[in-house]
Recover the amino acids of this structure.
C-alpha cells in the first residue's frame, strides 16, 4: 500500500475496468480538494478505477501544492486509460515528466482543468528535453497548454475574485454528447482570456463574465464571452492522436456546480470513447460531504496527506 497518492476502486458502471489518473498540483485553485472529490464520483457512480496524485513534500510526505517539483505516482499512466491534468507552473524531474509526455505522445486521452493551460514552467532545468512544454515556450508555441490542450495562459478576462463566470452552451454544438443533461454552469472563478484555439478545437461552452460573485448577478455589459470548454485532438511526436477535453473552470469551489460536474463526467466518457453510454442526466452527487476551500494563494489545508482523502 502506497502513501503518496490515493486510489479509489471502481464500483459498477460504464467505466468498470478503466483506469483514470487525476493529477493535482496548483498553488491557488485547490486542485488537491477538487480531484479527490471528482475521483470518488467517477469510481463510486461510474465504475472507473481512479488514482489521485498530489504535489508532495518529500521530507514530510504531506500534500504541498507549493512544491512544484514532485508529483509521485505518474508511472501509473503506464496502465491508464485517461489522464486528468490540473497543475500549474510545475517543473517536474525528467523521470516524472516523461510519463506525462509519453502518455500524450502515445495517444492517451487528456482532460485539462483550469490552470492546465499553463501546467508547466521550466525556470531552472532549461536544458531538459521537456523544457519546451513550458507555458511560454517559443520553440513549441505555448507549450503543453497551447499545443495539446488548445491554449496557454493569456490573462484574467474578468476581474479576478470580483467577477464570477457563467457557462453558456454553444448553440451549434448543443447536441454534442458531452452536453447531455448539462445545465446551469456557474463558478466563482473568473473567465480566462483566450486568443485563439489550436487545431480542430470545437467550443462547447462559452464563458460569460458576471458583474459579481453570485450566480444570479447579471452579465457584465460590453464584455465578450470567451471559450470556456472545448474538445480537440492532438497528434504527438509518434503520430498517435488523442482526444482532448479542456475547460478553464475547475477550481474546487467551481465544482459545487452540478452542471460543471456533469460536464466533466460526460467529458471523460467522451475522451475514453464510451460517449454512447452517457446518461440523460449523469449521476454526479457527492460521495462524501464536500466543503471546498475558496481559491487563493496560501489557503491550502496544511498537514494533510493523501491518506486523508481515502474513502
Amino acid at each position: 500500500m502506497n502513501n503518496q497518492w490515493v486510489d479509489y476502486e471502481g464500483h459498477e458502471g460504464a467505466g468498470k475496468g478503466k483506469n483514470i489518473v487525476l493529477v493535482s498540483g496548483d498553488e491557488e485553485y485547490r486542485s488537491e480538494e477538487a480531484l479527490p472529490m471528482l475521483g470518488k464520483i467517477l469510481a463510486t457512480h461510474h465504475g472507473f478505477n481512479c488514482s489521485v496524485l498530489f504535489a508532495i513534500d518529500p521530507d514530510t510526505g504531506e500534500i504541498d501544492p507549493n512544491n512544484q517539483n514532485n508529483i509521485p505516482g505518474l508511472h501509473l499512466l503506464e496502465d491508464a486509460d485517461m489522464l486528468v491534468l490540473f497543475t500549474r507552473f510545475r517543473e517536474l524531474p525528467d523521470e516524472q515528466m516523461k510519463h506525462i509526455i509519453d502518455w500524450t505522445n502515445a495517444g492517451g486521452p487528456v482532460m485539462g482543468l483550469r490552470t492546465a493551460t499553463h501546467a508547466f514552467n521550466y525556470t531552472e532545468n532549461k536544458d531538459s528535453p521537456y523544457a519546451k512544454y513550458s507555458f511560454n515556450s517559443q520553440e513549441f508555441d505555448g507549450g503543453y497548454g497551447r499545443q495539446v490542450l488548445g491554449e496557454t495562459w493569456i490573462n484574467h478576462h474578468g476581474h479576478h475574485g470580483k467577477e464570477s463566470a457563467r457557462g453558456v452552451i454553444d448553440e451549434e454544438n448543443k447536441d454534442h454528447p458531452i452536453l447531455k443533461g448539462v445545465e446551469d454552469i456557474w463558478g466563482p472563478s473568473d473567465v480566462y482570456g483566450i486568443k485563439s484555439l489550436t487545431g480542430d478545437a470545437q467550443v462547447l461552452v462559452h464563458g460569460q463574465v458576471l458583474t459579481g460573485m453570485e450566480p444570479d448577478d447579471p452579465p457584465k455589459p460590453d464584455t465578450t464571452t470567451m471559450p470556456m470548454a472545448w474538445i480537440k485532438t492532438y497528434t504527438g511526436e509518434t503520430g498517435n492522436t488523442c482526444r482532448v477535453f479542456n475547460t478553464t473552470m475547475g477550481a474546487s469551489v467551481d465544482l459545487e456546480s452540478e452542471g460543471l460536474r456533469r460536464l466533466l463526467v460526460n467529458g471523460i466518457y467522451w475522451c475514453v470513447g464510451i460517449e454512447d453510454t452517457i446518461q440523460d442526466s449523469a449521476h454526479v452527487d457527492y460521495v462524501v460531504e464536500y466543503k471546498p476551500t475558496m481559491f487563493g494563494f496560501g489557503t491550502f489545508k496544511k498537514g494533510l496527506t493523501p491518506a486523508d482523502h481515502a474513502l
